[in-house]
Amino acid sequence: MEVLQQARGWVEAASRIVVFTGAGISTDSGIPDFRGPNGLWTKNPAAEKASTLQHYLADPELRKLAWQNRLHSPAWEAQPNEAHRAVLKLETAGRLLALVTQNIDELHQKAGNDPAKVIEVHGTMHWTRCWECNDRRPMLSVLERVRAGEDDPPCELCGGVLKSDTISFGQALVPEVIDAALSAADRCDVLIAAGSSLSVFPAANVVPRAKNAGAKIVILNGEPTKMDRFADAVILGRLAETLPALCG
Ligand code: NAD
Predict the structure, then answer these.
(1) Residue whose CA is at the smallest distance from ligand 1 atom 21
(2) Distance from the CA of 196 to the center of ligand 1, in angstroms?
């Protein structure tokens, strides 16, 4: 494939690569995305409600459902796949400036990427945070309480509402984290966007920011994205095949 060869050339010549990943990189690890053909929201549009802060805080029934979903999430058993390992290769080669991910599953760190390189713009499902007092605890310890019968466990310190330490819709991003992501985009020579519909903002702004800074933009996904117009190369296909082919 000519486009792939050309993009591979850019990647091989680059010294400051930013990789931006979305839920599509983890579907081959058994974690469904939201908006892909088999996405959680594509199949059940009502599920979007549980990811909206205002509804989560206001509705105890929705929270009970959310805790059950967390308890039974495939993410706890998931292992990194070939696509995650391809990204690791860029770091091992010393050419990865930053790995900006919208994912909350920590599979990049599990694959071996240095946590200091991973910028989790939407947080992590492996921790909880109290909405009132900000106390942070490992998710697995709170899930033990759910397993033991608490269907909507409150904060042990202040009794406030607990949620996963992720960014829900309607919730502000952590300024230093999104700033670090956008600043890396400003400094890269190649930006690889993989497995994202590129429709969640401001995270998806890494693409136009990198483009404005003069970087080559390579978009890999299973279907067209909202930002293909910015791309120097669009590579369609399964990430477990296309990312290793790109990152070699
Ligand atoms: P999205 O669901 O909007 O888009 C995922 C894209 O990946 C789709 O276009 C889909 O066609 C594509 N895709 C799916 N599997 C693929 C594969 N094997 N190969 C190639 N392409 C594939 O996801 P998004 O853009 O990341 O935005 C959604 C939000 O969902 C993010 O904020 C993220 O936090 C959250 N989310 C995270 C996880 C996770 O951590 N694994 C899972 C679901 C949702």
Answers:
(1) 222
(2) 5
State the residue for tokens 């042990």: 156
36 lines ligand 1 (CB under 6 A): yes
CA distance 138 to 128: 6
Question: Where do the structural domains in the chain lie, given as residue ranges?
Answer: 1-31+80-122+173-248, 34-72+123-166
CA–CA gap between residue 188 and residue 128 (Å, rounded): 32
Q: What CATH superfamily is the domain 34-72+123-166? A: SIR2/SIRT2 'Small Domain' (3.30.1600.10)
Can you give the C-alpha Rg of the chain in angstroms?
18
Does residue 80's CB lie within 6 angstroms of at least one atom of ligand 1? no
Burial of 71 (0-12, 13-18, 19+ CB in 10 A): middle
- Tens-of-pLDDT digits for all 248 residues of the chain? 799 999 999 999 999 999 999 999 999 999 999 888 888 878 777 678 888 999 999 999 999 999 999 999 999 999 999 999 999 999 999 999 999 999 999 999 999 999 999 999 999 999 999 999 999 999 999 999 999 999 999 999 999 999 999 999 999 999 999 999 999 999 999 999 999 999 999 999 999 999 999 999 999 999 999 999 999 999 999 999 999 999 98
Å from CA of 160 to ligand 1 middle? 31
Question: How many whole angstroms from 24 Cα to the centroid of ligand 1?
Answer: 4
55 is catalytic: no
